[in-house]
Amino acid sequence: MLSVSLAGAKLQNPTVLASGVLGTTGASLIRVAKEGAGAVTTKSISLEARKGHPTPVITTFDAGMINAVGLSNPGIKDFLPELEAAVKGSPSPVIASIFASTIEEFGELAKEVSQAKPSLIELNISCPNVNDEFGRPFACDAVSSSEVVKAAKKGTAIPLFVKLSPNVANIGAIAQAVEKAGADGITAINTVGPGMQINIEAAMPVLTNKVGGVSGPAIKPVAVRCVYDIYKATKLPIIGTGGVTNARDAIEMVMAGATAVGIGSAVYYGGVEVFSEIPKGMREFMESEGYSKIEKMRGIAHEE
Ligand SMILES: Cc1cc2nc3c(=O)[nH]c(=O)nc-3n(C[C@H](O)[C@H](O)[C@H](O)COP(=O)(O)O)c2cc1C
Questions:
Q1: Fewer CB in 10 Å around end: N or C, the chain?
Q2: Is the distance from the beta carbon of residue 264 to the nearest atom of ligand 1 less than 6 Å?
Q3: 285 CA distance to ligand 1 centroid (A)?
Q4: Confidence of residue 128 (pLDDT cuts 50, 70, 90)
Q5: Half-sphere exposure of residue 111, counting CA atoms within 13 Å on the CB side?
Q6: If you measure from the C-alpha of residue 17 to the centroid of ligand 1, how many angstroms do you get, rounded to a whole number?
Q7: Is there an atom of ligand 1 within 6 Å of 219 CB?
Q8: Measured between alpha carbons, how far is residue 155 from residues 15, 113, 130 in Å?
């Protein structure tokens, strides 16, 4: 009833652990998969190790959170054994997220990460720290986005998902560009903003980095609209991500056109149990509303 396929990867249910949350070791990825996640995504990995921003890097507000983790990671060489362990031990497909600061590096990294044989590779071109030569995320420009896809395709035969940013005028046009360049799917969205929170007693921003990406329930309506626009613009499978905390949110994403549903911040609120609770709630909703399988709901909000 809930199984889906993402460019050949088979998921028992549509939930996917989003990149950057718990995906830092092989053991944590396996744990989330065993909790019921349909697929798990690693934290974004770069060629060289990165320290990230000084703490505090996360702050919360009533409808979400703001993070400026800054893509800290051990670099591909040290992460490969973790990824290999995850691929070996995870009952669900593993998605390897990678990022680079040049187009050529994306190609090199795609090749490196393929050694561990993840089911899919996610190209993170949308983090506020992943900039092109003009200091913008690659995902803000259709030409840069498609060049990243072409470079990565040269480095690997593993299907490529491209993670897009909501912070653009026309996300459908970017999606079409990466589809034309040969992408196999889209993950949308990365964080919104950047945003800022001020500690009014201290009269200064809470985060050392001052600003960070906004995630959680506050961004769900933006994420649903982006998924809707991408579904309309392309034929690619979409991992709809942003503000999903319960089964109703996940169903909204599917009705907008998502094949699978990414979950990040909700893990901070509800624990890893969300990966069993959301599929259970989806099943209950489908039974009570008479949907025999998930495909019957996918993109249904587009029908007039
Ligand atoms: C603490 C934190 C770290 C994140 N790190 C990454 C990352 O390394 N790579 C990436 O593509 N997205 C990263 N994200 C973005 C999430 O994968 C996701 O796209 C975004 O948070 C929206 O989903 P959510 O509202 O379910 O969290 C991060 C998000 C958070 C909250």
A1: C
A2: yes
A3: 27
A4: low
A5: 9
A6: 10
A7: yes
A8: 28, 10, 19
pLDDT tier, 131 (very low <50, low <70, confident <90, very high otherwise): low
Tokens of 119: 């089911």
Beta bridge partners of 213: 67
Atom in ligand 1 nearest the alpha carbon of residue 19 = 17
Q: Where are the domains of the chain?
A: 4-302
Specify whether the CB–CB gap between 281 and 289 falls below 8 A: no
Q: If you write DSSP's letter for every residue of 249-267 in order, what string do you get?
A: HHHHHHHHT-SEEEESTHH
Q: 277 pLDDT exceeds 90? A: yes
Q: If you take atom 6 of ligand 1, which residue's CA is the nearest one?
A: 20
Lowest mean pLDDT among 73-77, 136-140, 269-273, 300-304: 136-140
Q: Look at residue 70 in the predicted model and tell me its pLDDT.
A: 79
Residue 130 pLDDT: 53
Residue partners of 161: CB distance under 8 A and separation at least 6:
6, 7, 95, 120, 121, 122, 123, 183, 184, 185, 186, 187, 239
Q: Which of the following CATH numbers is that of domain 4-302: 3.20.20.60, 3.30.930.10, 3.20.20.70, 3.40.50.10330?
A: 3.20.20.70
Share of residues in the chain with pLDDT > 90 (%): 87
CA gap 233, 257 in Å, rounded? 11
How is residue 45 annotated by DSSP?
B
Among residues 18, 39, 86, 127, the one annotated as catalytic is 127
Residue-level pLDDT at 52: 81
